[in-house]
Amino acid sequence: MGAFLATVWAHAIAMTKILLIDDDSGIRDVVRFALAREGFAVIEAEDGAQGLSLAEKEAPDLIVLDIMMPELDGTEVCRRLRRNSRVPIIFLSSRDEEIDRVLGLELGGDDYVGKPFSPRELVARVKAVLRRMGAEKPDPEHSELRHGKLRLDLEGFRAFWSENEVVLTVTEFALLRTLAERPGKVFSRDALMDGAYAIDHYVSDRTVDSHIRRVRAKFQLVGGVPVETMHGLGYKLADCL
Fold first, then answer.
1. pTM beyond cutoff 0.85
2. Of the candidates 157, 160, 158, which has an alpha carbon nearest to the alpha carbon of residue 148?
């Protein structure tokens, strides 16, 4: 069974298209080699404008996006992409201050890797985000979660509040799903991210708070508040849905 699952995962990787947007050709060479060695198909853009064009034309499965680019930087590229796309985005940045990390996630990024970085770590992050998209396929009889006005379509990665769709990133959806699978349970920040991430890596409290803040803000636009803060403990699915 293990060999079969490994074969399935390898086939899935071979079908996966990753768009790399970075103005540094040296960085692009390193990232392209690391991802291609794992079997991913890599498309490259040398600036933000070209990246936006390729994102629309190629419909990539994931985007690795540099923040510090001239003219059209990564934050603006992310803003424009998030107007009509939920494609997973992993930010790259030479500025690894926590405030920059939080800003990237507030804009709709799914993960953030600081430069200089280990190519192996970046590949692991890419695989983790992709696994969050495809892991634990629900059986047809359990393809959604419902709690009051909240509905999660587990197959389509879509969230609804009173039939109003709320567009979430992959990470935001995974966090909300983790809460919805155990209503009534209070999750610490560590436990919440353990449930949402396919592999372990350090995620600060501010990172978790940033994701939850975005989830709340999106649901508030349609009159929903799906997540409750338990001060000093963490988060839980709101009781009144």
1. no
2. 160
Query: Could you give the dihedral angle defined by the CA atoms of residues 33, 80, 14 and 112, in that order, rounded to the nearest 10 degrees?
Result: 50
The SS3 call for residue 140 is helix
HSE of 211 in the Cβ direction (CA atoms, 13 Å)?
24
Asked whether 176 and 227 are in contact (CB, 8 A), the reply is yes
The burial of 120, by beta-carbon neighbours within 10 Å (0-12 exposed, 13-18 middle, 19 or more buried), is given as exposed
For 29, residues 6+ apart whose C-beta sits below 8 A from its C-beta are none
Phi-psi map region of 42: left, alpha, beta (phi>0 left; psi -120 to 50 alpha): beta
Helix, strand, coil percentages, rounded to 5, for the chain = 45, 20, 35
CA 52 remoteness from chain centre:
18
Give strand pairing partners of 89: 63
Q: What is the pLDDT of residues 12-65, one digit of tens each?
A: 455 789 999 999 999 999 999 999 999 999 999 999 999 999 999 999 999 999
Q: Which tokens go with 212? A: 């939850």
